[in-house]
Amino acid sequence: MPTPLPHGIHKRSLLRNDVYQSIRDAIIDGTFAPGERLRDPELEAWLGVSRTPIREALLRLERAGLIVSQPGRATIVAPEDPAATSNARQVVAAMHELAARLAVPLLVPDQLSAMVVANADFSAALEADDVDAALAADDQFHAVVVDASGNAMIPVVLEQAMPVLRRSEFQHFSTDAARHSVTVHAQIIKLASIGDADGAALATRDNWLSLGAEPSI
Questions:
Q1: Which residues form the HTH gntR-type domain (predicted)?
Q2: Quick one: 109 and 186 in the same domain?
């Protein structure tokens, strides 16, 4: 797909992280297809920033496995790799399991309420076939637990592993199978509300491991 036309989506003061997220999201949603060449001048025109933050973003995306750089030749969107996606899914599931195990004894009513609201937003987004909103609501749901865990290494590891898995998430949330996650989220909330850290952790792990698979119940 051609690079989107400039339309003022960003200002010159755009933070480096926003440049990274914009290119990442364009890869995840298929705007930039696997195998497509990414050209600095076109990205600069699209985002309205200089080459420096573009190159920094591309380096981060390469480390995350979403692009492949061929020195002196081209920078292309990495093809989807089932093995890499499976590896990322296992790491993400393990990190969220750990987060839940640590967080549940510490969660306060306001945090549980935030999870309920996020799951309701997630459900509404799926009903509206709004994948971007569903991803955002799902992020908000899990962020409550990650933040409450108090382990600063968990988000660091997740930032490295999530980009590859995100393409699978985007596809999954475009299907009816994603509705199963609403039920699992509700189960996690219930287990957390009664202080069952092990149960909530295992349910969280299984939720991530089942990503992309048809629900069994």
A1: 13-80
A2: yes
